[in-house]
Amino acid sequence: PPPPAAVKVPPVPLKPQPPAESTSDATTILSDRQVIDTPVSKPPCRYPKRAEDAEKEGFVRLMITIQPDGSVSDIEVVAAQPPGWFEEASRSCVSRYRYRASGRVIKAPIEITWRLE
After folding, report:
1. pLDDT (tens digit per residue) in 96-115
2. Do the strands 72-81 and 106-114 form a parallel or antiparallel pair, or are they unpaired?
3. Is the pLDDT of residue 27 over 60?
4. In Å, how far from its chain's centre is CA 103?
5. How far from 68 is each of 33, 93, 108, CA to CA, in Å?
6. What is the per-residue pLDDT across 64-93, written as a single tens digit (0 to 9) for each?
7. Burial class, 65, CB count within 10 angstroms (exposed 0-12 / middle 13-18 / buried 19+)
8. What is the predicted pLDDT for the residue at 71?
9. Are 74 and 91 in contact (CB under 8 A)?
């Protein structure tokens, strides 16, 4: 059988489109430091009742993973002073932090300081 005949289809004319509002965010690549230093949501931490009653102060150093969407996971306690007082409250607090979406996984150190006011 003979090959099918080529059919020419004229292009469909398109109406002119308005310019995009901005593409600056599409080309901006944030450094890891920019993401870590500028959380978009950092709810206040609740002072542990037991530590408040005992008038304890201290700090907790954590290593966290910031997911590509800006959420926090894999919260690991690296150091705590005094030990046993603030670790769980620190984990709970940092799990609610949100960072700018970067499209990549970022490991970051975080320190939570606990002071009575």
Report:
1. 999 999 889 999 999 999 99
2. unpaired
3. no
4. 10
5. 14, 20, 13
6. 999 999 999 999 999 999 999 999 999 999
7. middle
8. 96
9. no
- Residues 6+ away with beta carbon under 8 Å from 58: 51, 80, 81, 82, 85, 86, 113, 114
The C-alpha angle with vertex 112 and arms to 41 and 115, in degrees rounded to 5, equals 110
Give the residue from 45, 56, 107, 52 showing the smallest Cα distance to 80.
56
Structural Rg of the chain based on CA atoms: 26
**Residue 87: CB atoms within 10 Å:** 18
The whole-angstrom separation of Cα 83 and Cα 74 is 20
The CA distance from 115 to 74, in Å, is 25
44-64 b/e with 16+ CB inside 10 Å = b?
Answer: ebebbeebeeeebebebebeb
CB 27 within 8 A of CB 67: no
